[in-house]
Amino acid sequence: MAVGSIGSSVGVPNVPRSVHALGSFPDADYADRFTLSTDVDASPERWARAMFGDVPDAAEMLIWRGLLGLRLSPGRSPATVAGWRIGGRGDDWIRMEAASWFLSANLLVQTADGRVSLTTFLRYDRWPGHAVWPPLAVVHRLLVPRVLREAAARLTTGSWHVRAANPADPGLHD
User: Which burial class, exposed, middle or buried, applies to 149 when counting CB atoms under 10 A from its CB (0-12, 13-18, 19+)?
Assistant: First the structure.
């Protein structure tokens, strides 16, 4: 497996408009995009499940439900990734969506030309979003490169299903 460098773009104006167009809200208050060069060939959904699994782990639950208050779907389902609802997809992208009472979020996974990208969009729906996310964004930006590299390793070694609730269930994977 060849895993290359990771590039990033932080800030709404620094994420390409074509990427914004795949989000579920045009008025994002926060956006970042991390792109990993890799020779791992997998669909966007497989990448998303290698990154996050079929159900959230304890750390994801703490951050997503505990700190951000995101309403995630319980259990595993072909319609969700780690509790995030699959809100849209195309040949080279998949968008996961979740919301709390104070913010809405999208995670967008794209694959193309030897690269995989994870883009995060947030919209602050109420004032706590402006206070809660900025300190968490610092941690988020430190974690995302590791998430991409570990997903590449899982896909390469065939251990990506370790994050899956039931890897034998073909309905959850492409």
Answer: middle
Question: How far apart are the C-alpha atoms of 103 and 29, rounded to whole Å?
Answer: 10
Q: Give the predicted TM-score (pTM) of the model.
A: 0.88
Which residues lie across from 122 on neighbouring strands? 30, 105
Tell me how far apart the alpha carbons of residues 64 and 71 are, in angstroms, rounded to a whole number. 8
Where do we find the tokens 């990734």?
A: 81
Return the pLDDT at 157: 87
DSSP output for 32-66: EEEEEEE-----HHHHHHHHH-SS--HHHIIIIII
| Interatomic CA distance for residues 115 and 123, integer angstroms | 26
Question: Residue written as tokens 């497996």?
Answer: 1
Instruction: Please give the share of the chain, as a percent, with pLDDT higher than 90.
Output: 75
Q: Identify the DSSP state of 159.
A: G
Q: What's the number of CA atoms in the CB half-sphere (13 Å) around residue 127?
A: 0
Phi/psi at 3 (nearest 5 deg)? -115, 125
> What's the rounded Cα separation, in Å, for the pair 22 and 134?
23
Q: What single letter denotes the amino acid at residue 95?
A: R
Domain ranges in the chain?
3-158
- 3-158 maps to CATH 1.25.40: no
